[in-house]
Amino acid sequence: MNISQMITYWGYPSEEYEVITEDGYILGVYRIPYGKHNSENIGKRPVAYLQHGLIASATNWITNLPNNSLAFILADAGYDVWLGNSRGNTWSRKNIYYSPDSVEFWAFSFDEMAKYDLPATIDFIVQKTGQEKIHYVGHSQGTTIGFIAFSTNPALAKKIKTFYALAPVATVKYTQSPFKKISLIPKFLFKSRFDVYLGHNPAGTSTQDLLHWAQLSRSGKFQAFDWGSPFQNMLHYNQRTPPDYNVSAMTVPIAVWNGGNDILADPQDVAMLLPKLPNLLYHKEILPYNHLDFIWAMDAPQEVYNEILSMMAED
């Protein structure tokens, strides 16, 4: 099934849009405008925008049953829910200048997702809904591009009410390579929905994106992509080394949930990140959680989603 079919399969309304970025990528953006039982309330609804992580897609928020999937839970709670897709994944594999068969198409990492994808998508949603501010929920790399975009683009940051960060990733100094750890995938993951997860993941990204993560793992810094030589970096950044991203420049209110068993968003990296966030509203570490439990765990509503809902309601 494609994303729209997955949404309508469970009896929810689905809308599909194409958002064009400043550099020509065509992103598939999906909307669940209301829930199963609140369609009659046709006024402006508060907007929740969900942004997936590395090599993933918008399906992450809708692959479990409706009472367990954040997108459906938010729609039923009265939110206008939007699901983003980063360039290069299954649902965003088009560009007005380049074919996906060309090298040029894949010359991007999460730098470009933060610089182009996020502003284009959020501006589109704000314009379409008439809501000046939206709730932003990011998982994994979805938090990374949020940190970059909201700390470097003040006009965009003004459009965010609150940033809900699940398994946040900025530095990856302490991360352990997921490739080394693939054999340690816990047995319980091979549960009844596993075929659905694998049907939609990995959803693809560029080699450059993975290279960028490898660079950060080596350097222990949170910085832009290193183009490989001082000369190339000068061409891209006007300096010999990639610029650092300064998370403490981000004033958007943020709530953070992280996992004690997360090998990607390592608790030590998260501990380094938290003091740098000037507007940290809330933090919770869920000791048994790994990186994917935030989107797929059976108890995610009890551990995370209900808290997000109550914070959004206060807002």
Descriptive terms for the model:
315 residues, alpha/beta, nine-stranded mixed β-sheet, 11 helices, 9 strands
Please explain how this structure is put together.
- By secondary structure, the chain is of the alpha/beta class.
- The protein has 11 helices and 9 strands.
- Strands 1, 2, 3, 4, 5, 6, 7, 8 and 9 form a 9-stranded mixed β-sheet that branches.
- α3 crosses α4.
- The radius of gyration is 18 Å and the shape is globular.
- About 2% of the residues have low confidence.
Cα shape = globular
- Discrete helix count: 11
Percent of residues in β-strands: 15-25%
Task: State the major sheet.
Answer: 9 strands, mixed
Measured as a percent range, the helix fraction is: 25-40%
Query: Overall pLDDT, averaged?
Result: 89
Q: Rounded to an integer, what's the Rg over CA atoms?
A: 18 Å
Which parts are unreliable, with pLDDT below 50 for 5 consecutive residues or more? 179-185
Structural class: alpha/beta
Order of helices and strands: HEEEHEEHEHHEHHHEHEHH
Number of strands: 9
End-to-end separation in angstroms reads: 35 Å
Please give a quick description of this structure:
By secondary structure, the protein is α/β, with parallel strands linked by helices.
Which helices and strands, and how do they pair?
Elements: H1 3-9, E1 15-20, E2 25-32, E3 47-51, H2 70-76, E4 80-83, E5 94-95, H3 110-129, E6 134-139, H4 141-152, H5 154-157, E7 160-166, H6 194-200, H7 207-219, H8 230-237, E8 254-259, H9 267-273, E9 280-286, H10 293-296, H11 300-314
Parallel strand pairs: 3-4, 3-6, 6-7, 7-8, 8-9
Antiparallel strand pairs: 1-2, 2-4, 2-5
Helix pairs in contact: 3-4
